[in-house]
Amino acid sequence: MTYPDLLILRHGETEWNLAGRMQGEMDSPLTATGRAQASAQQRILTRFGIDGWQAWTSPQGRSAVTARIAMGERAEDLRTDPRLSEITMGEWTGLHRRDIVAAAPHLFETEMDLNWYDHAPGGEGIAALYERTGAFLDDLTGPSVIVTHGITSRMLRCHALGLEPAAFTELPGGQGIVYHLSGGVQTCLSEGA
């Protein structure tokens, strides 16, 4: 599937991110660092040029606040879509990551392995996330700025790069990041570039 050009942003750092708590469908306010990351994203978008681009955000507060900051004068153009929400974490929602690791150490054999997201009791799972993010992308009608969450961002990029859902663990993440996806190629945009 060929998609229009995409600029995919992850929300800025939140208080729960800083504390190591799993947010999933819950929410937490941006930290001062998170607001600064969103401001940096705004400068990147301004330099890139997004006139005529659609603007989308997850309805979750951390993403919506980041989107309003990052879109600057274009914030009134933002549309929300629940398909951009973060993967749900079921019983792990609100827990500290260290407590999840202690309860299920076999899921955390390597630091970079994110497959544990597929094992959250009562959680959404990777296949369901892949399906809803694909449905969102299939509905796009033009170049789009998308402000979302860490795992959701990775899954959107799997689609745009023609990767299987399991490849989400291999894609880079990071808060305050802007990824440009065009023609099956991903470029990480930064203020200095």
At the first level of CATH, the class is Alpha Beta
Radius of gyration: 16 Å
Strand order of the largest sheet: 3-2-4-1-5-6
Overall domain count: 1
Mean pLDDT: 94
| Unreliable residue runs | none
Q: Please tell me what the overall shape is.
A: globular
How many E strands? 6
How far is the N terminus from the C terminus? 29 Å
Largest sheet: 6 strands, mixed
In the CATH classification, which architecture applies? 3-Layer(aba) Sandwich
Please trace the helix and strand order, writing H or E for each element: EHHEHEHHEHEE
Helix proportion of residues, in percent? Answer: 25-40%
Classify the secondary structure makeup into a structural class.
alpha/beta
What is the percentage of strand-forming residues?
5-15%
Number of DSSP helices? Answer: 6
Instruction: Look at the structure and name the CATH superfamily.
Output: Phosphoglycerate mutase-like
CATH topology: Rossmann fold
InterPro entries: His_Pase_superF_clade-1, His_PPase_superfam, PG/BPGM_mutase_AS, PGM_Phosphatase
Protein name: Histidine phosphatase family protein
Organism: Tateyamaria armeniaca
